[in-house]
């Protein structure tokens, strides 16, 4: 098991070398060329080949969207193959194509300005709207939403087979699966599924490693830590701690009894209890109140008021998020940006598909798997692994990770 210090030995170092690429990145918004169209695959890209995107029908009537960026810094060196990073967002139901790309590591931000810290400087980037129903991905029937991490991993493996098996250049690059939040559960199950497909000769891919960023791998350990941590930093008083610990113990018992949907509902209740007893502590920065941090406020989920289960969901990066810098032109507002300028650029998004239009249903379909741990999968995954810890995030915090990591040494 790699510790955080060894992350740099295989994960790109993100230098500031963006200026010379700014113009080409912006101009690429205007360029489009169809690449291929098969029975289960439709793809397109920019004329200069720096971007490709498309749909893979991973199952009949279940369509998964992907977007690949090629770095202009790419160096062809057989002794040090250029890496590809597959970014998996949280949720389930948060869009990697939208959030991970435009709000976190992609070449452009939500105002379509170049991002100096983009990971594209050191690796090619592959964003996927996973599971189906997330972002631009969609299903034609509600019964086709995945119900657990293993089904999601199977769909992702099918997508990788379609993208990599037809492209010998991609096969030369090691693929690193990088995930945050709930995406960590997708990452480890995908890693195992991909390795199985590689060994069976079905997937032509080199799996380089898996990185888990503040990942929801052991829900029981995490919820048991919330009350004590927030009491230690004076965000909860004794009464709040007692109330939070009571619900956390109930969640622990429900998980042990296999009552996973009930555990998910109790998790929602626990978040509400903590919020009401802590002056609405910021889930991502326990030193602040909710709404005080302009960065974490970008991750606030807009959910349908009729879906009570999803009141808690600020935690999992947003399904849809908006920037306070957004204006009436839609630039800066992620939802408007993706459904406006970006959808026009991509051209292959069906007219009746709205970015994020099915995201609410994705979580609902997976409610029975949300609180299921994936510690065993981390233990048996035979590739390089690294954990990234966010020190001021109380949802997945150092205290809980200390317990969880005892099982992964």
Automatic annotation (TrEMBL):
Entry keywords, A to Z: Carboxypeptidase, Glycoprotein, Hydrolase, Protease, Secreted, Signal
Matching SUPFAM superfamilies: alpha/beta-Hydrolases (SSF53474)
Localization (cell): Secreted
GO biological process: proteolysis
PROSITE patterns reported for this sequence: CARBOXYPEPT_SER_SER (PS00131)
Family (UniProt): Belongs to the peptidase S10 family.
Protein name per the record: Carboxypeptidase
Classification of source organism: Eukaryota, Viridiplantae, Streptophyta, Embryophyta, Tracheophyta
